[in-house]
Design brief:
3 domains; 333 residues; 11 helices; alpha+beta; 3-stranded antiparallel beta sheet
């Protein structure tokens, strides 16, 4: 079940919005219609409270001696009623309850206005981690034509054993298990992380700025995408867009020229593929998506993590390349 906590009631400590469809593992409790945070947490068996407890060592004489700066996290298991240790953490560690992580996420995206709903919630690794997925609504590009749909979720993850920080990620991946949580964060457009320390509360305002998940952003992005769809993209035009992003003059050695040629051929292959020209036709939207997909997922990098982090950094050279491609495509209108 890929990390999901097992239980006899629903198969796994997991709940999902029925309108979003059943997950691949077919486990958990289906919830009909809009559900508030309390209802989803209860249905997912994630409404437990985590406590922070001192850690002791027993001396040869039987005396309990506290270990300075070390604490144990624990919960009452909602299935068995037993008090269960979750992990050991250091002194500055601050517990963030599952309910707090979810409520903060809803506050980040302004869910009170009805623009977002809780889609999934679940417990991983016997209570040590919690995750949720908030549906921000699907963007439909060219609704009367290609109807290219882009799912938008805010993925929430936190741990109670110090293994991962409080994490919010803007992604198109629906979280239903540990693998999808990992994939969603790895491929996210933007990620916000806060360590479980006393200043975690103060960083929530920063999260709003980092994630940029407002409804206004979605409207502006949709407007830009539809404008790109209206721009015809001939082979010559696409070459000019690529040349603006990766100028031939930069390839000043035979090896660099060969690498550039390989990259250009790869981008053109993505452009001509079923997700771009095969779906929306030969236009600026397909061209821009091909370039973005190359830089986000296929450009040379030392590690997958380095590639993902650079792509998510608003100030990185990769982001500048993608913005340059956007500007060039729009200039052809």
């Amino acid at each position: 079940m890929d990390g999901l906590e097992k239980n006899d009631a629903t198969g796994a400590s997991f709940a999902y919005r029925a309108e979003g469809g059943a997950p691949w593992h077919r486990l958990g409790k289906a919830m009909n219609g809009y559900q508030n945070a309390d209802a989803m947490l209860e249905a997912a068996f994630a409404n437990y409270e985590v406590t922070l407890n001192p850690v002791f060592v027993q001396s040869p004489e039987g005396e309990l001696v506290p270990i300075e700066g070390q604490f144990a996290t624990a919960r009452t298991n909602p299935h068995t009623g037993e008090y269960q240790a979750l992990g050991t953490v250091r002194g500055r560690y601050t517990v963030v309850q599952n309910s707090e992580a979810l409520e903060r996420a809803l506050a980040v995206v302004g869910a009170s206005s009805g623009d977002a709903v809780i889609d999934t919630a679940g417990v991983l690794f016997d209570g040590r981690r919690f995750f949720a997925s908030i549906d921000l609504g699907t963007l439909v590009i060219d609704p009367g034509g290609a109807a290219d749909k882009i799912g938008r979720f805010l993925l929430v993850q936190t741990s109670h054993d110090g293994s991962v920080p409080l994490t919010y990620a803007n992604t198109d991946v629906r979280a239903v298990c540990n693998n999808t949580v990992t994939l969603g964060i790895r491929t996210a457009q933007r990620v916000f992380k806060a360590k479980h320390t006393p200043n975690v509360e103060n960083r929530m305002e920063e999260a709003v700025q980092v994630l940029n998940l407002s409804t206004e952003w979605a409207k502006e992005f949709q407007k830009m995408a539809n404008e790109m769809l209206s721009i015809p993209m001939s082979a010559g035009r696409f070459d000019r867009v690529i040349d603006s992003v990766m100028p031939d003059s930069e390839a000043d050695t035979e090896k660099k020229r060969a690498n550039r040629d390989d990259a250009v051929a790869f981008i053109k292959g993505i452009y001509a593929g079923p997700k771009n020209v095969g779906k929306v036709g030969e236009n600026g939207w397909a061209a821009w998506n091909a370039i973005v997909e190359y830089y986000d997922h296929f450009r040379p990098a030392k590690t997958e993590e380095e590639r993902a982090l650079t792509s998510m950094d608003d100030s990185s050279w990769v982001t500048r390349k993608k913005l340059l491609a956007q500007e060039k495509v729009l200039s052809l209108a």
